[in-house]
């Protein structure tokens, strides 16, 4: 699974790091570090992290292709509302 974080949009709210700590971590108070090639076993956690981003800075691409949230094959990505 491939993850992309728009670091220009990211505001350091750290919701992703809280929900998927195996993939996302805060370095200092505002810098996000992450693994762009997450393991498939983390699909559910990543779906929650993508949906929880308040500024929608995270996108995930997996077997369902670009524009789909992990764990929801065949559905368009939601803005988490």
Structure write-up:
- By secondary structure, the protein is α+β, with helices and mostly antiparallel strands.
- The chain has two helices and four strands, in the order E-H-E-E-H-E.
- The chain has helices at residues 15-19, 43-52, and strands at residues 2-5, 24-27, 31-34, 58-61.
- A two-stranded antiparallel ribbon has the order 1-4.
- Strand 2 (24-27) and strand 3 form a beta hairpin.
- The longest helix is centred in the middle third of the chain and has 10 residues, at 43-52.
The total count of helices amounts to 2
* Domains, number: 1
CATH architecture: 2-Layer Sandwich
* Shape designation: globular
Order of helices and strands: EHEEHE
The average pLDDT score comes to: 81
The CATH topology assignment is: Alpha-Beta Plaits
The radius of gyration is 11 Å
Structural category is: alpha+beta
Strand content: 15-25%
Assigned CATH class: Alpha Beta
The main sheet comes to: 2 strands, antiparallel
Q: Helix share of residues? A: 10-25%
Unreliable stretches covering 5 or more consecutive residues: 64-81
How is the largest sheet built, in terms of strand order? Answer: 1-4
Per DSSP E runs of 2 or more residues, the count of β-strands stands at: 4
What distance lies between the first and last C-alpha atoms, to the nearest angstrom?
23 Å
């Amino acid at each position: 699974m491939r993850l992309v974080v728009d670091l220009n949009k990211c505001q350091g709210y750290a919701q992703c790091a809280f929900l998927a700590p195996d993939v996302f971590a805060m370095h200092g108070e505002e810098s996000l570090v992450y693994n762009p090639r997450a393991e498939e076993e983390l699909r559910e956690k990543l779906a929650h992290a993508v949906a929880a981003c308040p500024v929608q800075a995270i996108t995930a691409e997996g077997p369902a292709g670009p524009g789909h949230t992990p764990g929801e094959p065949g559905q368009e990505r939601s803005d988490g509302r």
